[in-house]
Amino acid sequence: MTKYPDKRVVITGGTSGIGLVTAKLLLEQGARVLVTGRNPATVDAARQELGDRAIALTSDATSVADIDQLADRARSEWGGLDVLFVNAGQTAFVPFEAVTEAVYDQLFAINAKGAYFTVQKLAPLIPRGGAIVLTTSVANVLGLSMAGVYSATKAALRSMTRSFARELLPREIRVNAVSPGPIETSILDRAIGPEAAAQVKSQLRADSPMKRFGRPEEVAKAVMFLAFEATYMTGAELAVDGGGTQL
């Protein structure tokens, strides 16, 4: 017996990493899923991997026009949605002296602006009792080297989570955030290259109270908890970080 039969879930940034794993687990539990990504090749691969119950859509989180089209697609396919997982984002590791205006603007456009307008455009499609989950990061409470702009964007998302939760209370839509620590995905390799990533990962493991990286499935399960089970939680942030921000 499936736990979430025919629940309608939109996942931005759902074609790789945590987003893709979350989509797989939701599909296994009977949900219908729409995932987005910016890279057409990655979107096509996700479409093949997820199968017929999923929709994979090329959509740029920095484009309000694309976000409008995403809302239109969810409306036309399903008439609305039950859960929105705002997971699209980008990482960059740059010493603060080397941060350019382009890097700064790009990170805020994807991680903060994109998330804000995704919630604004898709929240009207969510009925009472629905939920929104945003992906923040342990970086929003830790002083991490070479991640000042990225950390600031995630702190903005933490603030937005509270504001959205307050504003959507009259509509009985819960809004929470999941805050991953180091997770076994390819994001570090893409951001700084495999060799540098290996060194960073070694240090992160040593610094972790649990001495390991988390698995995407562990974050995905937290997302599903916030989306469906955490019926007396709103405005909260759930750390999935091996105790890194707590111990």
Q: Distance between termini? A: 38 Å
Shape: globular
> Can you count the helices?
8
User: What is the strand tally?
Assistant: 7
Q: Hey, roughly how much beta strand do the residues contain?
A: 5-15%
Largest sheet: 7 strands, parallel
Sketch the topology as an H/E string, one letter per element.
EHEHEHEHEHEHHHE
What is the percent of helical residues? 40-55%
- Overall radius of gyration: 17 Å
CATH homologous superfamily assignment: NAD(P)-binding Rossmann-like Domain
CATH architecture: 3-Layer(aba) Sandwich
Main CATH class: Alpha Beta
Whole-number count of domains: 1
Order of strands, widest sheet: 3-2-1-4-5-6-7
Secondary-structure-derived class: alpha/beta
Low confidence ranges: none
- CATH names the topology as Rossmann fold
Mean pLDDT: 95
Provide structural commentary.
The chain has about 250 residues and is of the alpha/beta class. The protein has helices spanning about 15-30, 40-50, 65-80, 100-120, 150-165, 185-190, 195-205, 215-230; strands at about 10, 30-35, 55-60, 85, 130-135, 175-180, 235-240. The longest helix has 22 residues, at about 100-120. The mean pLDDT is about 95.
